[in-house]
Design goal:
- By secondary structure, the chain is mainly α.
- The protein folds into 2 domains: 6-214, no CATH class; 281-316.
- It has helices spanning 6-28, 35-54, 56-68, 80-101, 103-109, 130-133, 137-140, 142-145, 149-162, 176-181, 185-192, 209-214, 239-256, 259-262, 264-267, 281-301, 306-311, 321-326.
- Helix 4 (80-101) packs across helix 5, helix 4 crosses helix 9 and helix 5 (103-109) runs antiparallel to helix 13 (239-256).
- The longest helix is centred in the first third of the chain and has 23 residues, at 6-28.
- It is globular, with a radius of gyration of 23 Å.
- The N and C termini lie far apart (82 Å).
- Bound molecules: zinc ion (2 copies).
């Protein structure tokens, strides 16, 4: 059986919806679209499509090879479709989590997060180097179980199409049951946020339940404005810089780092450094949590006596009684 690539059919709808969103937000808030940013997003989407076409032959060879070595035979029966879709979505979650936690995979995925804006055009920021990063190994192994190649690729296409509409600020919250089960604009805004509390959260593709199950879920709050993009913003709309900057960073680190540290610059988390000169998302969040704890203590103690305030812990965990007493 041959099945069409559903993404090919969705592209005109993508373009139409971007234009509609542009029109809608232009009337309410001009900041949401910035021409240079949108142009970069569109170029990255186009480049990703070209990269996909150039590597299609390798994907065909690889998928057919895996299916030839399958352990079981799964025919085109009705139950195979939802099973394949859900399994592929779980694999997407695992891939996406790795893409944020392992620098090698991040180097390809960072492209999707490089915009400081959040609108439907951001969804088109797709990687050009996915096949080089080998992220597809997370998605293709079900072929060994016997799922047909066209079925798996079709499910993957539907997954990608689903993720388009969640890149918008136009939709606030969906009905409660949808928010509970599905990935929504609200959940995915959290994923694109650089606010410390939101870092490395909501990796889901279609079903948000994976994040809830594996402990990576964070709900969007109404009392904190979201900042989008990267912890260290690109500061450039240069297309080639946007696409390849992290790979160039890896190459530079591999050349310059001492031998004992080279491997970690590949498989460690983004932001890891052997001399502590950079920050990972865990370090950023820890620093923020410490500050938040200190702020809470300060607010609580401001209503207490001078003696109580003097005994309150400092952010580094020490007590300030001694320094206050000697002052
Ligand atoms: Zn991501
Ligand atoms: Zn996204």
């Amino acid at each position: 059986m041959t099945l069409p690539n559903p993404v090919d059919y969705a592209v005109p709808a993508f373009v139409a919806l971007v234009l509609i969103e542009m029109f809608v937000v232009r009337r309410a808030n001009r900041d949401r679209y910035e021409p240079r940013d949108t142009l970069t997003s569109l170029s990255m989407g186009l480049g990703s499509t070209v990269a996909g076409a150039l590597t299609a032959g390798a994907i065909v060879l690889m998928t057919n090879w895996l299916h030839t070595h399958r352990f079981f035979d799964i025919p085109y029966v009705w139950w195979a479709w939802p099973l394949c879709f859900v399994l592929d979505d779980l694999n997407y979650y695992l891939f996406h989590r790795a893409a944020h936690r392992v620098r090698w995979f991040w180097a390809a995925h960072v492209n999707h997060h490089s915009s400081q804006h959040y609108n439907l055009s951001t969804a088109l920021r797709q990687t050009w180097t996915g096949i080089f990063a080998l992220g597809f190994v997370f998605r293709l192994w079900p072929l060994l179980l016997g799922f047909p190649v066209p079925m798996l690729l079709f499910c993957g296409g539907i997954n990608l199409i689903y993720q388009f509409w969640i890149h918008t600020e136009v939709i606030g919250r969906c009905p409660r049951w949808i928010e509970a089960v599905m990935n929504t604009p609200s959940h995915h805004r959290v994923h694109h946020a650089v606010n410390p509390r939101y870092l490395d959260k909501n990796y889901a593709g279609v079903f948000i339940v994976w994040d809830k199950f594996f402990g990576s879920f964070a709900a969007e709050r109404d009392d904190e404005k979201i900042r989008y993009g990267l912890v260290k913003q690109l500061g450039s709309f240069n297309l080639l810089h946007s696409v390849f900057h992290e790979w160039i960073g890896i190459a530079r680190d591999l050349v310059e780092a001492p031998w004992r540290a080279k491997l970690m610059y590949l498989v460690g988390p983004p932001g890891w450094s052997h001399d502590g000169s950079r920050e990972t998302s865990d370090m950023i969040r820890a620093r923020w949590e410490e500050r938040e704890t200190w702020r809470t203590v300060k607010n609580t103690t401001s209503s207490l006596s001078a003696a109580d305030r003097a005994a309150a812990p400092l952010p580094d965990g020490s007590a300030k009684a001694a320094s206050t007493a000697s002052a």
